[in-house]
Amino acid sequence: MRQASIVFLLCALLSACSGSGGDRRADAIAAAKAKMLDLISDPAATFTHVEFTGDNSSGQTCGVIVSKRGIFTKQARFIVYIDGAGPNVEPGLGSSMSQADFEWAWKSECVNEGYKG
User: Fold this and answer.
1) Is the pTM of this model over 0.85?
2) Sign (positive/negative) of CA torsion 50, 51, 54, 59?
């Protein structure tokens, strides 16, 4: 009987932990999208391939933002860090970061951390 109680308690704790982790990831993605919309000043911009990588204390949101500028549609990859650093945006959508620097950050912070995009 005692083992059954311990197993039940462990299952409940595991369920609680996995549920809260999902909420933090969703919150981080929502915050990253809001930060990107503010950065490019286009509330109509859309997002694709957005994923949270890393862990809940030092992770980042990686994805693609698509914005219409006049008659042109531009898209750029972005990285927004959960600790408030960044965002890093691929050149072409208002970023001063070089393409080489962005590629290094994208590979190390997104791809190497599990981004599937």
Assistant:
1) no
2) positive
